[in-house]
Amino acid sequence: xxxxxxxxxxxxxxxxxxxxxxxxxxLPGSSSEMTCGSFLSQVxxxxxxxxxxxxxxxxMRTVLKVVDNSxxxxxxxxxxxxxxxxxxxxxxxxxxxxEAMPNGKVKKGKVVYGVVVRAAMQRGRCDGSExxxxxxxxxxxxxxxxPIGTRVFGPVPHELxxxxxxxxxTLAEHIA
Length: 176
What we know:
By secondary structure, this protein is α+β, with helices and mostly antiparallel strands. It contains three helices and nine strands.
């Protein structure tokens, strides 16, 4: 069993390290099992650091997905209004449109306001639970806070009610 594990490790090592072959003489360690073990420990530590990345605020130069039918697809945050660190769920940001549909209301390069409706950073709720999304998403609004689009796609947290964005909640298809 140890021999089959070592052969599997050497195959993994060859594919990941560019085809070293079975020549482990130039690597530190006395046997292929030790080399394979140290190699696997390095790979797992790199993978764990990638998986455990700290989710942060939405700050300058963060690219967000637009989840309404205003015509924009992606925006980049220019400034987070109200807050030194950045924006969270329900906060308003100033953003620049990076990708847009050709026949939409909003064109590429336009500076717009947006409300963060989904954030990858977790936020605690009153009941002790936490809400966290897979992506960062925004709904485009005008200066008065009214949505530009007429539909909002995907889940929207009910914390927007506390931030006085009730119109976005009425347009949303699912409230989380």
